[in-house]
Amino acid sequence: MSPKAEINLYLLVLFLMFTSQATIGQKNNQTARKTTGVSVSPSHFHFNLKQGDIKTYDITINNSTSTKKEFNINVYDFDMNGKGKSSFLPAGKGKYSLAKWLNVSPTFVELKAKEIKKVKVTISVPNTDDGRKAAWSILMVEQEAPRENLINANNNGNTVAFGIVPTFAFGIFAYQNPPNVLTNKIEFRDFQLKNTKDGKSLYIEVQNQGDGIAYCTSYIDLTNLDTGDQQRLKVKNFTIVPELIRDFDFNLPNLPKGKYLAIGVLDYDSADEIQAARMEFEIN
């Protein structure tokens, strides 16, 4: 299997295990509300360094279990195409690779039961034109588990024994936005009412037309033009990298018949103004 295929297969399983404060564990039998496990923080890095800057940050790994744990720390690149489809690559191979500027020390960590350790992540932005571009990668804290010998009970020589070693990992997204890039060029591409199998939804499509990574909030303010009643549909937070298109469906509640005004809003950290799109529709 090629390295790229291995990464894709592994990350397909891994991404099902992400949490905002990456923690995997099990309940303690003595206290129902207390949990033990392994946690990694932070869950992401948002760098904003200039050309030639060198800075070091910490990753904290906390083993609150009663057994020893071992982890490898690796860095991978990823490209995002179309509407967010990701393609994972070896370090240094991405179009917007941050991995080539990152140094991790140590790359292997052994934690005793109840032990906490820190890993140093150093980012060195080159003092060249490359240092003026946005870049991103993902740091993987991957459990290293010993493989046990497999015993094949059928000794006729015509069977093969397979085993699965249950392991887990944490992904830490790392984004670098130099001060010169534009992070406020997120534009609406589409805003419409759609029929779905569960009813109706409002569909928003946006594109990052700048050269920086934007951290956005999107929501819809809905007004019944007949009664004046207002409500805000669920807020969605997302990251959008240069050239990427993102799309979202906001499921509509059971609305009474009437005419409605929908205002779609994009609000992002670095913008002095918000982006808005307007649409009127009718529920019959």
Record the SSE blueprint.
Blueprint: H1 3-14, E1 23-27, E2 35-41, E3 44-47, E4 54-63, E5 69-81, E6 85-89, E7 102-105, E8 108-111, E9 115-124, E10 135-143, E11 169-176, E12 186-196, E13 199-208, E14 214-224, E15 230-240, E16 245-251, E17 258-268, E18 275-283
Parallel strand pairs: 3-11
Antiparallel strand pairs: 1-2, 2-4, 4-9, 5-6, 5-8, 5-10, 7-9, 10-11, 12-13, 13-16, 14-15, 14-17, 17-18
Descriptive account of the structure:
- With 284 residues, this protein is mostly beta strands.
- The protein is built from 1 helix and 18 strands.
- It has one helix spanning 3-14, and strands at 23-27, 35-41, 44-47, 54-63, 69-81, 85-89, 102-105, 108-111, 115-124, 135-143, 169-176, 186-196, 199-208, 214-224, 230-240, 245-251, 258-268, 275-283.
- Strands 3, 5, 6, 8, 10 and 11 form a 6-stranded mixed beta sheet that branches.
- Strand 12 (186-196) and strand 13 (199-208) form a beta hairpin.
- The longest helix is centred in the N-terminal third of the chain and has 12 residues, at 3-14.
- The protein is globular.
- The model is unreliable at 1-35 (pLDDT under 50).
The proportion of residues in beta strands is over 45%
Helix and strand sequence: HEEEEEEEEEEEEEEEEEE
Secondary structure category: mainly beta
Percent helix: under 10%
Q: Unreliable segments (pLDDT under 50, ≥5 consecutive)?
A: 1-35
Count of DSSP strands:
18
Give keywords.
284 residues, 1 helix, 52% strand, globular
Quick recap:
The protein has 284 residues and is mostly beta strands. Helices cover 4% and strands 52% of the residues.
